[in-house]
Specification:
Length: about 230
């Protein structure tokens, strides 16, 4: 049996210390998961809990270059802790959730803020602002068996050597186990799913030529040039 068009390639991430790669099934993202970022976007974190949206697996970029997207004049960086699931499930209890984690990575949720803003105002979906080509920047995965499950530690992003975003994993409103538990009540999670867990305060625009360098303590750093 053949296919009538070429089947899409398996999207995958490299794994530190391994020849094998991590195949990516879905990319879930958490919105407004740090109070200071919710406030900078004009929301009250005490009244509006975090929520989910998605990107597409083939939006992932790993090569250190972020092509500035079409149809936008206001493209923002959002540095995030990325969780990779090695096991799936539905209705996962928070106390069992970390057992489903394969590992962690540093990622940047690139956002066409102008198009996202128009969508928000019109009550429309966010895909045009969030799920565009090359919008999911991600470094190598680090297995949890090597580093454990980070609960605190700096998360930061510099643009051209200047600090733009700074926070700590202990500021997450929904911690990683709660994110997994919440998601698993809404979707059937599976091995290969990635979760971008939200961004701390300090999001801002980039232009071509900018160099974004970001990291999460205990996981690593990534560098991307805007081209
Ligand atoms: Mn984000």
């Amino acid at each position: 049996m053949g296919y009538v068009v070429p089947p899409p390639a398996v999207i995958s991430l490299p794994i530190r210390g391994s020849e094998k790669r991590f195949p990516v099934r879905r990319i879930y993202c958490v919105g407004r998961n740090y109070a200071a970022h919710a406030v900078e976007m004009g929301h009250d974190p005490d009244r509006e809990p975090p929520f989910f949206f998605q990107k597409n697996p083939d939006n992932l970029v790993q090569d250190g270059r972020f092509p500035y997207p079409r149809r936008s004049r206001d493209v923002h960086h959002e540095i995030e802790l990325v969780v990779a699931l090695g096991e799936g499930g539905s209705d996962i209890a928070p106390e069992h959730a970390l057992g489903h984690v394969f590992g962690y990575a540093v990622g940047i949720d690139m956002t066409r803020r102008d198009l996202q803003g128009e969508a928000k105002q019109a009550g429309r979906p966010w895909e045009v602002g969030k799920a565009f080509e090359h919008s999911a920047l991600c470094g190598e995965l680090v297995p949890a068996r090597a580093i454990g499950h980070p609960e605190r530690g700096a998360i930061w992003l510099d643009v051209n050597g200047e600090r733009r975003q700074e926070g700590d994993l202990d500021q997450l409103i929904w911690k990683v186990p709660e994110v997994i538990a919440e998601l698993s009540r809404l979707f059937a999670l599976a091995p290969g799913d990635l979760i971008m867990t939200g961004t701390p305060a300090g999001v801002g625009a980039v232009v071509r030529g900018d160099v974004m360098r970001g990291g999460v303590a205990g996981i690593g750093e990534i560098t991307f040039e805007v081209v």
